[in-house]
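## Example record

The block below lists the input lines for one assembly entry, exactly as stored, with component labels intact.
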Amino acid sequence: MFKKKIIIIEDQEDLRESFEVIINGSDKFFVQSTYPNAEKALREISKVRPDIAMVDLELPGMNGIEAIKHIKEKSPKTECVIVTVYEDSDLVFEGLKAGAVGYIIKNANYLEIISALDELVRGGSPMSSQIARMVIQNFHINPNSPLSSRETDVLKLIAEGKSYTQISEELFISKETARSHIKNIYVKLNVNSKSEAISKARKDHLI
Amino acid sequence: MFKKKIIIIEDQEDLRESFEVIINGSDKFFVQSTYPNAEKALREISKVRPDIAMVDLELPGMNGIEAIKHIKEKSPKTECVIVTVYEDSDLVFEGLKAGAVGYIIKNANYLEIISALDELVRGGSPMSSQIARMVIQNFHINPNSPLSSRETDVLKLIAEGKSYTQISEELFISKETARSHIKNIYVKLNVNSKSEAISKARKDHLI
DNA sequence: TAAAATTCACCCTTTTTGAGGGATTGAATT
DNA sequence: AATTCAATCCCTCAAAAAGGGTGAATTTTA
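Predicted structure tokens for the full assembly:
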């Protein structure tokens, strides 16, 4: 088994060093290099290609969210872990959306850090259940939808880019019926085009 | 503080009863009623309106996934928890997508069950880090996209239902350029319409 | 330097869209 | 019993959009 190559992007020197010591003390991981900001890390990421990047969310210059996006662009196989003081914040959620697969709390102890990294390489995502809830709620549909179930069916197909004709074929109704539903959807959502309907539907989690 | 009202939908009588005993032994929860299948539960759900529904995934008749969907329709405020033997499966993931907010393993002990329910009422989602990974990977984009960044920009707008003209306006390019990009997208994705492009893009997490 | 990405133009035909109308049936609620 | 709502279907019309083909200039990047 090869040790997993890790880089650390963290502006606080003490933290950077304590993480390094802890990780280098393990038998599964080693720290390849550390960076005080995202810019310096991004300059080398393509050559270094680490297995794991630990990214602080609050960095001078480019913030952690943007850093994660760039890392995933330049080195897609690198798994990003958020390092944060705030256990449960929207910021962590943004980081996960940007491409991170989990996060580590700044004041975590040796065991917590190593076990989080362990979970990671075993294909898991270390995160609190609060964050997990935020994540899954993102693809739960809104139970207070103003639309009828048939209208929701139609809207889903609209969101897949289907035309009136295609929708009518998939739902075994006439094209005119599909158009009727769509007109009613427009009235209920207060929009007047497919694209507006899709935007509103996604924003309000109607589909 | 009122105790949280729970219903259990589980076909195995022994499990149903042991869950009931465990939960009724806690000071924060009580079992209002139990059901051996989804159909019977759904007949009463609108009147009972439990705070929490514990739903087995493998039920005779209607399965747990469908049951969860129906529960969320009829009683949106009821939080569904999956009860399953398989800790990490696509089935659990499907249940979460259907509207569940977490899951409990069938052979969990008293403490695990109560702490999972506790996490739930505190706004968390009890789940393993393996499941968490599956969940977040659902909104990570594919780093091996065949599309250029500009093409991806265009595709995102297509997925919002935008027309050639709207796309050109939003990206400050001419309509013909937008068409060019779209034609190239069609070739790269091997499709020949907007709807096909959207389907493929979503399936492959290109957007 | 060569390849890829980004930009734009003009040809063409067919389909779709959105805005107006209106109508019927059946189920659920009051 | 009355009424509302969902779901189904039909019509017209003009404007917009879509999709296919072909070619080419410019910039960026590997």
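Chain A touches chain B through 45 residues (CB under 8 Å). The domain at 4-137 of chain A is CATH 3.40.50.2300 (Rossmann fold).
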